[in-house]
Amino acid sequence: MKTNNILLLTLGAIFLAIPSQGADKLTFSTVENANNAFVSEKVITEAYQRIGIEIILKKYPARRALRYSNEGITDGELFRIAGMDKEHPNLLMIPVPVHKIDGMVFTKEKVFSVKGWDSLKPYVIGARRGVRYSEKGLHGMNFHLFNNDKKLFKLLDAGRVDIIVITRVDGMTLMRELKTPHIRPLEPPIKTYPLYHYLHKKNKHLVPEITVALQEMEKEGRLGRIRKQLMAERFGNHE
């Protein structure tokens, strides 16, 4: 009996000494069909590699992605605009921007000077459901939410809405994919938003490490090079 107890204690010590499966792997939520994710994915993948962690991405509709990351079903959110931690208290924002998005007006017939969100008030507007920057910016206006960006383009093309709000990257990607040269962006952007990575609070011990990794990448100029390279590969030199 004594021998068996010693054996069990030894095996227990060995078990505790072995890192738990998945300790070097994290799963993050991200928005399905989000064309903006390609820069953030590269940045976050490299940042976690620097601290010895592999990442896996799970793609969901925008609201579900955020709910899963806040509830701890996933380990956090690949990227979102600032302030999501105020609305979702289980999320911790890593304070180094990993990318940025331009919120743009895309139009077929309406042409006007874009001067912030208020300049959109006279129009019937389409936007994607669950995209927080546009839902906030359009508050109080005549807008309609739809589940995907292709639907937005089709409604704009059919004249069901006057304009749509979508990111520059998403809009340019769809212009090419759907072959709609008559739909075009209006410059300048409504607003440019930095994007941040979020961790669920169960992973708060990783906040200092991943923050330092991203700060080092920023200091090295690596964040800017990743963005420039990937944007050029997709859209030429157009940011």
Secondary structure topology:
Layout: H1 2-17, E1 25-31, H2 37-50, E2 54-60, H3 62-71, E3 76-81, H4 84-87, E4 91-93, E5 99-107, E6 125-128, H5 132-137, E7 143-146, H6 149-157, E8 163-167, H7 168-178, E9 184-200, H8 207-220, H9 222-235
Parallel strand pairs: 1-2, 6-7, 6-8
Antiparallel strand pairs: 3-9, 4-9, 5-8, 5-9
Helix pairs in contact: 2-8, 2-9
Write a structural description.
It is a single chain. The protein is α/β, with parallel strands linked by helices. The chain has helices at residues 2-17, 37-50, 62-71, 84-87, 132-137, 149-157, 168-178, 207-220, 222-235; strands spanning 25-31, 54-60, 76-81, 91-93, 99-107, 125-128, 143-146, 163-167, 184-200. Strands 3, 4, 5, 6, 7, 8 and 9 form a seven-stranded mixed β-sheet that branches. Strands 1-2 form a two-stranded parallel ribbon. β6 (125-128), α5 (132-137) and β7 form a beta-alpha-beta unit. α2 (37-50) runs antiparallel to α9 (222-235). It has two domains: 21-100 and 194-235, 3-Layer(aba) Sandwich (D-Maltodextrin-Binding Protein, domain 2), CATH 3.40.190; 101-192, 3-Layer(aba) Sandwich (D-Maltodextrin-Binding Protein, domain 2). The radius of gyration is 22 Å and the shape is globular. It contains nine helices and nine strands.
Using the 3D structure, state the CATH architecture of the largest domain: 3-Layer(aba) Sandwich
Q: Helical residue percent? A: 40-55%
Question: What count of structural domains?
Answer: 2
Major sheet size, sense and barrel closure: 7 strands, mixed
Write down the CATH topology of the largest domain. D-Maltodextrin-Binding Protein, domain 2
Q: Whole-number average pLDDT?
A: 88
- The rounded distance between the terminal residues' Cα atoms is 71 Å
What's the alpha carbon Rg, rounded to whole Å?
22 Å
Strand content: 25-35%
| SS-based class | alpha/beta
- Overall strand count: 9
